[in-house]
Request: fold
Amino acid sequence: MQGKPVVSLVVPFYNEGATIEMFFDAITSAIDNIDAVEFEIVCIDDGSKDDTLARLLAVSRSDSRVRVIELSRNFGKEAALTAGLDAAIGDAVIPMDADLQDPPELLVQMIDRWRQGADVVLARRTDRHGDSMAKRGTANLFYRIHNRVSHVEIPSNVGDFRLMNRASVDALKRLPERQRFMKGMFAWIGFRTEVVDYMRPARASGTSKFTGWKLWNFALEGFTSFSSVPLRIWTYIGLCGTLLTLSYLAFIVIRTIIYGIDVPGYASLLVSILFLGSLQLLSIGILGEYIGRIYMESKQRPLYVVRQTYGDNHES
Ligand code: UDP
Ligand code: MG
Reply:
């Protein structure tokens, strides 16, 4: 008990067997140089199907700072992170990716800023050459639209890599929602926030666990968790449609009065029916998105299930 503050690193692992050795080499050499604080490393095995768990356990046997939480299946990164945040006991908590895309060298700076009084220290990537053009483009688009539409501004080019002090972690834990859009939730809690910049490297090995479809769903989560604009927009579209239809009606009546009845065209009729029909389907779809979310929330299921934890009082 030297009374040093404790910093928890929270790392989700999903099929990262090939990266683990590299990850711990990099991490330990970075944190061994930081004397001002103690570290604990909370590793969450998010239902990996490879040898991730076995390798994590091997590391935790030789390094008492490493704790392992095994989830009962793959719950996804957001849930894995939540499990880690719940288990972390540090005075500050830093979520990190296992693929070394969050450079451990940055820890020194982040911890310094925290000790100088920041509550939250964001790591912002100045360039994303590690990511593909398409991913960068869609990410930019997402932030632009999201921040237009939602009340909570998500800082762009900031991921989950950040330092949070105990108060902000506790605030985060009080957000009860099941559908977790961490980026938005991190932004929602506020606190005195500072930023450090870094270059985002490419993945150390393996491939991204996020496919295009997963990312699309992720973005949808973001919009619907933090904004009801997609829902409200239909009121306005409906209003415009009604006004247009009314003026068209007036036009037809006047034309009939002046020119008499002529053979009406099916084309315009069909077009307007189809147009309104598809508009309705779309808005029903959007309603469905929100109702689905209400349904998920109402079940009040736990966010994750822990199969076993290792490391605190290890058998050794
Ligand atoms: N991850 C996880 N569960 C999942 C998907 C990913 O715990 O279902 C972890 C993964 O092991 C990594 C982090 O989340 O530590 C980030 O994943 P990845 O590098 O694939 O995402 P990207 O950097 O492409 O956004
Ligand atoms: Mg990555």
